Amino acid sequence: MYSYTRLIFQVSPVIISRSQYGKLPFVELNGEHIADSQVIINRITKHFNIKELTDPKNRAIARAVERMTEIHTFMVQYYFKIVDDANTLAEIGCRDAHFPEWLIPIIAPIMGFFIKQKTMPKIVSGVGGMSTENYKEVLRKDYDVYQALLDKQKFLFGDEIAAVDCSVFGQLATVLYLPYSTYAKNLLKEEYPVLVDYCDRIKETVFGDYKPE
User: Fold this and answer.
1) What positions belong to coiled-coil segments (predicted)?
2) pTM of the prediction?
C-alpha cells in the first residue's frame, strides 16, 4: 500500500488485464473501473477534493501541457516504441511467448511488418505522416518544452507534484524505463538528463521502493 496526497492506494501489476472498457491505465474506486489518464485524474481530484494550482494561469498552462503530452508526445513516442523498430518488438514478443529460437528470425520480421501496418495509420491520424527524421525533430521539440518548463524546479510548478507532472511522467516513463533501447529512450538519456532526473524523482516520490512482483 502506498500513500500520496492523502490517498492510500495499491499497485497491481498486470500483463493482460484491462479495465471493463478495455483500456490501460485504469483504477478501481469503490468497485468502479475508471480508465484513461485524464478521466482518472479528474475523478480522483473531485472525489477526494484535492486542491492544487490555485493560480488560473498555471492551471491553463497545465491543461495545455497535459493535452500536448497525452496526444502529441504520446503519438510521436509511439512511433519510436512500435514502428521504428517493430522487428525488435516482435522478437521480444516471440521470446515472451516462448517461441523456439530457430523460429524467431523467421517469424519476427513478418510480425514486425503487420505491427507497422496496424500502428502507422493511428500515428498518421494523430500527428500526421512524415519521415523518421521529422518525427525525431518534433519529439526533440516536445522534450525541449518540458525541459524549459521544468527549468531548475523540482517539479513543473514548484516543490510539490501536480497532476500535470503525473501526465508528463506517465508518457516519458513509457520509453525511459523500457527494457530495450529506442531512439526516444536514448535521446532522453543522452541529451535530457534533467528530464531523466525529473522522472526518477517522481518515481521515487510516488512509488518509493516499489518493485514489480
Assistant:
1) none
2) 0.79
